[in-house]
Amino acid sequence: MRVGPNFVLQAFIVLWGFATIGEGLFVKFTNLECESFNKSVVKFEKCRLKAVARHNVSLNIHIKFFVNPIHDIKLHAQLLHKGNGFRPLLYNDTLDFCQFMKNPKRWMFWKLIFDAFSPYTNMNHTCPVNHDVIVKDLSLTTDMMQLLPFPPNTYLLRFRFFNAIYRGFQTSVQLTVYN
């Protein structure tokens, strides 16, 4: 099996992240963008970051659905890092969100991300989705980075939710890991 240069670079970044994670490292949200592709189906009532302290920014999202219930939800999830624009890092997956909610261990990386979000959201069940989805006062801590150690940089998590009938919506969250 031949290993390409991109894989070697990505593996080096992750291994360097394991080596550099430590006491003086902070992580916080730096930007949030929410976009509805069909405003007659889904609307963002709230999509904002709130500065709580110098190294603490909380995320708040309220997604209002006008069509209920929604079945068969697909998720295109990406993790990108900043380097001459945002570039794909390790993860660029399209998965069945309903299956993910039933058995998240099949997608371990996204399970770790969801486990960080889940105490702050009301989306804690499988499909169908028949209510508004709210993420309230989600703040990142250095403890969360112990499971996902990445070197200091700016990262982008992009989540695009869609199904066969409705075009869906997208959220893009930038977070910065810094000393």
TrEMBL record:
SMART domains: DM8. InterPro entries: DUF1091. Pfam families: DUF1091. It comes from the Eukaryota. PANTHER family: DAEDALUS ON 3-RELATED, DAEDALUS ON 3-RELATED-RELATED. This is MD-2-related lipid-recognition domain-containing protein. It comes from Stomoxys calcitrans.
